[in-house]
Structure to design on (466 residues):
């Protein structure tokens, strides 16, 4: 069963966000990883590009399928996880650790309040199953 | 059949290196029986069924009058007067209807798909696993594309040395009520061999690496066997069959497009339906594409004009609006 750390914020598109000083680290949740299976390719923009909350910023591919990645908050991309280019399986192995995707310098701190906490996210997942 | 049990890569690898067990009971099983069964089936498929010995199987396609592919099939001659035709689940009603319409009254026809189960045991250790599961030697010693009835432990089964993975292996037909017992028996016998239950995801990557066509992706009623690389299953001289005249004309005129294998040289994964481009123009469509876990490259199949079908030809695959480089390669991508 997937686990959801208490210190993260979550989106309906199955991204997580963690506040780290003045940037937000972003990844996909263990639930998303379970749905995707073996991740084989992550396609992301370059640092410096702007992203909009809940809009697509990249794609993630598994053996079976391709899914879009959505930004949890608006802002400028500070850093991209370059390790994923050669080792996309890091997303499977540790979606909240080495499998992170990007960091964002948020343009509107208020958007963080719109994210779900772990309990709300789990509740939300319950509405998806069955 | 689930998409995956433990993970597509792990399941794929188990089949390539050890053994995997698939529940493919969704496939259709059609029996044709009677003194004229061989001739009756031969008149409906492109390959030559008249040359089949008892205990032998062959791969074929079944075409419509225009030469379009209605389905790809394996035909098993299990007795002098009894033929088993295995068709794709999605085509079962169409093929059963086609057979019932065209078969003469001198043979009997049974669609046994609902009562029969089919398990596929595939991989280099498949024969050892099957022996360990208590199968008769007559089954474990079958050679490629041979079929026999026998027992696996206490379960009566029809076993064939066929498969859809590019590996050695068996397909085991049994009564549906016996299937759970057979499944458990094989998994237990395979435990020391590292057997894995395998889902639809790895079934697709395994067959793609071996360049085995998937109906609905690589072949359908709008494609004919010559352009699909299946000319070898069309025997124009083996008596008349549905679609023969059209296929003879197509062969005479020559093909205009061809199903080719390609690998991505740029960073991207081709998927079914993506456009294939050359010199900025759309020239074809990807019919199958995914990472190839064993070959270690992102691979695919698609139809391109004959002039672009040679090995080494540079192609582009349009992936979400961006053209990524690919090249036509020799197939199969993987050969054991």
């Amino acid at each position: 069963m997937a686990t959801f750390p208490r210190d993260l914020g979550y989106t309906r598109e199955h991204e997580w966000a963690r506040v780290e000083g003045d940037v937000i680290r972003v990844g996909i949740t263990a639930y998303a990883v379970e749905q995707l299976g073996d991740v084989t390719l992550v396609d992301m923009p370059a640092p410096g590009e702007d992203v909009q909350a809940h809009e697509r910023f990249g794609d993630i591919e598994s053996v079976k399928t391709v899914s879009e990645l959505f930004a949890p908050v608006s802002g400028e991309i500070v850093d991209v996880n370059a390790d994923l280019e050669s080792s996309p399986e890091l997303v499977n192995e540790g979606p909240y650790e080495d499998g992170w995707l990007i960091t964002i310098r948020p343009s509107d701190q208020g958007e963080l309040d719109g994210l779900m906490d772990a309990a709300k996210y789990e509740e939300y997942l319950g509405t998806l199953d069955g | 059949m689930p998409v995956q049990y433990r993970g597509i890569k792990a399941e794929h690898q188990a089949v390539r290196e050890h053994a995997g067990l698939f529940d493919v009971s969704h496939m259709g099983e059609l029996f044709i029986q009677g003194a004229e069964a061989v001739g009756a089936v031969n008149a409906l498929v492109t390959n030559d069924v008249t040359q089949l010995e008892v205990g032998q199987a062959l791969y074929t396609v079944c075409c419509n009058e225009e030469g379009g592919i209605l389905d790809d099939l394996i035909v098993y001659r299990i007795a002098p007067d009894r033929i088993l035709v295995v068709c794709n689940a999605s085509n079962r009603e169409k093929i059963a209807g086609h057979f019932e319409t065209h078969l003469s009254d001198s043979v009997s026809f049974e669609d046994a798909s609902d009562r029969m189960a089919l398990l596929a045991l595939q991989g280099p250790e498949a024969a050892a696993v099957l022996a360990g599961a208590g199968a008769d030697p007559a089954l474990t010693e079958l050679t490629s594309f041979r079929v026999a009835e026998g027992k696996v432990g206490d379960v009566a089964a029809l076993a064939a040395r066929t498969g859809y993975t590019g590996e050695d292996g068996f397909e085991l037909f049994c009564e549906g009520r016996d299937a759970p017992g057979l499944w458990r028996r094989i998994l237990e016998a395979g435990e020391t061999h590292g057997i894995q239950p395998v889902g639809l995801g790895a079934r697709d990557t395994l067959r793609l690496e071996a360049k085995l066509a998937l109906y609905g992706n690589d072949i359908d009623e709008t494609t004919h066997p010559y352009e699909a690389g299946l000319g070898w299953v069309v025997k124009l001289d083996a008596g008349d069959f549905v679609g023969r005249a059209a296929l003879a004309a197509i062969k005479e005129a020559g093909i205009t497009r061809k199903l080719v294998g390609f690998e991505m040289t740029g960073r991207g994964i081709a998927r079914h339906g993506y456009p294939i481009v050359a010199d900025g123009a759309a020239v074809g469509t990807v019919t199958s594409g995914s990472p190839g876990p064993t070959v270690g490259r992102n691979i695919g199949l698609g139809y391109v004009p004959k002039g672009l079908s040679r090995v080494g030809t540079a192609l582009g695959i349009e992936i979400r609006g961006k053209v990524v480089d690919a090249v036509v390669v020799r197939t199969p991508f993987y050969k054991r």
